[in-house]
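Supplementary Note 3. Input sequence used for the single-chain structure prediction.
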Amino acid sequence: MSIEVGTKAPDFALYDTDRKERKLSEFLGKKVVLAFYPGAFTGVCTKEMCTFRDSMSRFNDVNANVIGISVDPPFSNKAFAEQNKLNFPILSDYERKGVRLYGVFHDDFLGLKGYTAAKRAVFVIGTDGKVSYKWISDNPGVEPQYEEVIKAVQQAR
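The predicted structure, written as discrete structure tokens, is reproduced below.
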């Protein structure tokens, strides 16, 4: 079961590309966009993260942080972030704690028995720490509606 709009966003502790533990709570005070994606170096995930990268000025204009999250290890995420010049934190949920906490886990991903990846999902969290928007796709090939996400961030408290 995923987190519902209007509820407090659960805090988490995940590792960034430099293997530094980062908590959601350290990003609060600004609006936050959590963008869960299935896997680094895959076509749709690369396009999604690069679209967020290319939209950063719009997120900055509304005082919002963007955070990408996948189950890939920090080393893979670092190479992915560097290759794509991502200008926001990419966090590793290799223990699958965050995807389970937010209800966006995809068991047996792409028919790989026992492999759990993140579903493609976006949560917008207001400065009050509450989820104001959520979008989750069961189809890893479907991208979020980026303009809808930006509008949700603009409307978040």
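The beta strands are 13-15, 21-23, 31-36, 64-70, 90-92, 105-106, 117-118, 120-125, 131-137. The domain at 29-155 is CATH 3.40.30.10 (Glutaredoxin).
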